[in-house]
Specification:
Layout: H1 2-28, E1 31-38, E2 42-47, E3 53-58, E4 63-69, E5 72-79, E6 86-91, E7 98-103, E8 107-112, E9 117-123, E10 128-133, E11 139-144, E12 148-153, E13 159-164, E14 169-174, E15 180-185, E16 189-194, E17 200-205, E18 211-216, E19 222-227, E20 232-236, E21 241-246, E22 255-258, E23 264-268, E24 273-278, E25 284-289, E26 294-299, E27 306-310, E28 324-331
Antiparallel strand pairs: 1-28, 2-3, 3-4, 4-5, 6-7, 7-8, 8-9, 10-11, 11-12, 12-13, 14-15, 15-16, 16-17, 18-19, 19-20, 20-21, 22-23, 23-24, 24-25, 26-27, 27-28
């Protein structure tokens, strides 16, 4: 029993030293810079597994890919082919050259940055709104507006399985071990299915209102969910219990991202700031000021750099024209 208390104290001290270290880091590196990416708003940003590239998906029906060079993003290519908005995209978990886009045009497309070509177009049954790639790289899951999730073989590009759900499916994700599949839903629940046989293991009443987003931390210890009640909750993966809540946002939580070490959690909403919390204590480490609602956030897989995109308006000349910029936070103040 006493050693438990000592463990807790050690953990608290480690957490506080990390807290101080990261506060010091952001005091010197709190510059945000924006990079033109699209002709309309950006819905989704994601880093390749090696952190060398950032991809963005937009309402303008395209994806863009940037190369990270020291303290700036340099646009490498724009990927055209979708006939409707690109709502979400993700990279292959271990191959830094492949990414996949989900679109309202009832297809998903797999792209290769080496050839800059579309490797495959897979037709699906409905307008696609969310997508994820399994940790083993073998399967892509895509969810549509009719709450159907299709599991697609990443090599043959053929559908392996299809599930129609009786609830509003918001975001989908495998756990890091690839043996469970998680869905957040409109009733505030997290539904957990076994994988690959897709049998319901458990349904957790996570939030009193719509459960919007879900992310797993890279270490596999926690996952986080964000909901319409403006709360972010942190869950223990093994125990499936809520460990703590973060409640600094006032609006529905749209997007979440864990830092590469699993120690920071960024969350954002229509609030005009992105909250950066220390995972182990729930303390606010930093906040990134924004001038408008944030659609998407993504921590770099190796560095404390946060990519994000907001509901930009070009205010200067024509307030109706949307901008499509990608932003990067965590740059040196003197850069």
């Amino acid at each position: 029993f006493p050693h438990k208390i000592v463990q807790k104290e050690v953990a608290a001290n480690m957490a506080s030293s990390y807290y101080q270290e990261m506060q010091e880091n952001f005091r010197n590196n709190n510059k945000s810079r924006e990079f033109p990416a699209h002709s309309a708003k950006v819905h989704s940003v994601a880093w390749s597994c090696d952190g060398k590239r950032l991809a963005s998906g937009s309402f303008d029906k395209t994806a863009s890919v940037f190369v990270l060079e020291k303290d700036r993003l340099v646009r490498e290519n724009n990927y055209r082919g979708h006939g409707d908005s690109v709502d979400q995209l993700c990279w292959h978990p271990t191959n830094p050259d492949l990414f996949v886009t989900a679109s309202g045009d009832k297809t998903i497309r797999i792209w290769d940055v080496r050839t800059t070509k579309c490797m495959a177009t897979v037709s699906t049954k409905g307008e696609n709104i969310n997508i994820c790639w399994s940790p083993d790289g073998q399967t892509i899951a895509v969810g549509n507006k009719d709450d159907v999730v299709t599991f697609i073989d990443a090599k043959t590009h053929r559908p392996r399985a299809e599930e129609q759900f009786k609830f509003e499916v918001n975001e989908i994700s495998w756990n890091n071990d690839n043996d469970m599949f998680f869905l957040t839903n409109g009733n505030g629940c997290i539904n957990i299915l076994s994988y690959p046989d897709l049998k319901l293991i458990q349904s957790i009443n996570a939030h009193p209102s719509n459960c919007i987003c879900i992310k797993f931390d890279p270490t596999g210890k926690y996952f986080a969910t964000g909901s319409a009640d403006a709360l972010v909750s942190l869950w223990d993966v093994e125990e499936l219990v809520c460990v703590r809540c973060f409640s600094r946002l006032d609006w529905p939580v749209r997007t979440l991202s864990f830092s590469h070490d699993g120690k920071m959690l960024a969350s954002a909403s229509e609030d005009h700031f992105i909250d950066i919390a220390e995972v182990e204590t729930g303390e606010k480490l930093w906040e990134v000021q924004c001038e408008s609602p944030t659609f998407t956030v993504a921590w770099h897989p190796k560095r404390p750099l946060l990519a994000y995109a907001c509901d930009d308006k070009e205010g200067k000349y024509d307030s109706n024209r949307e901008a499509g910029t990608v932003k990067l936070f965590g740059l040196p103040n003197d850069s």
